[in-house]
Design goal:
The chain is α+β, with helices and mostly antiparallel strands. The chain folds into 2 domains: 2-156, Ribosomal Protein S5, domain 2; 161-263, 2-Layer Sandwich (Alpha-Beta Plaits), CATH 3.30.70. Helices cover 27% and strands 28% of the residues. It is built from 9 helices and 10 strands. The strands form 2 sheets. Strands 1, 2, 3, 4, 5 and 6 form a 6-stranded mixed sheet that branches. α1 packs parallel to α2, α2 (98-113) crosses α3 and α7 (206-212) packs across α8 (214-224). The longest helix has 16 residues, at 98-113. It is globular. The termini are close together.
Amino acid sequence: MIRVPSPAKLNLFLHITGRRENGYHELQSIFQLIDLYDWMEFEQSDSAEIQIDGLNSVELEQNLIYKATQILKPFAQTVSGLKIRIEKNIPMGAGLGGGSSNAATTLRIVNQLWNCGFTLQQLADLGLKLGADVPIFVHGKNAWAEGIGEHLTFIDLDQKQYIVLKPDCFISTQLLFSQKALTRDTKTTKFCAYQIKPSDFGNAFEPLARSLYPEVDEAMQYLDQFGVAKLTGTGACVFTEVTENMNVEEILAHSPCKSYVVNSLKESPLNHFEV
């Protein structure tokens, strides 16, 4: 049995810079991996069956973990059944990339278990079929992202701590993307501009998330008392950077919703794991 971590991410900013003819949105963002983990266990079995425990709310065929195994199956040199168990700590529908991370972890581990022989870049290309956030987790590195999220430039980011709040609501990404008020034409920028003045970089979805989901607005107002609150992904999670003068325990104790303190990661722990 193999037990591995599957990390979450924060979007330090998220701009939409255009829209493709196929309806997909062009974006720019920074993905920061954090030490909030789901834990995944993989066990090979003699049957041909793929079993997934710990995600009962998701139909098997819709499950990204299951889909990841099915993408690899045609290339397996030594196919086996799999029992996959997941211990969920990353909240779902939160903008923390939990589902994408689980799919990426599955691609990396099952690629080795089934001797598919793919490189990380090939796995990332396959992962893109599952979702725009999957490649970042396959590579397991912090990145400046462009395109629909698949053009990645790996970057070094300063080690930081963040307070993350999870408002008690489930945000529909489709609903936010369908809003006429969504800003889709932000001017493209560069990583060096972010480094000079990160405060200029926000999240295109934040005004909409705040107006459509009062819980998000409440969480952001709360964090704004102590620092600069930001939305990650399309939400619902919001976060702020921990600074010297913050009383973190107090902030967590009085939070209007579930809260976490997380550390930034230089890279995914999976990068040092071999089956």
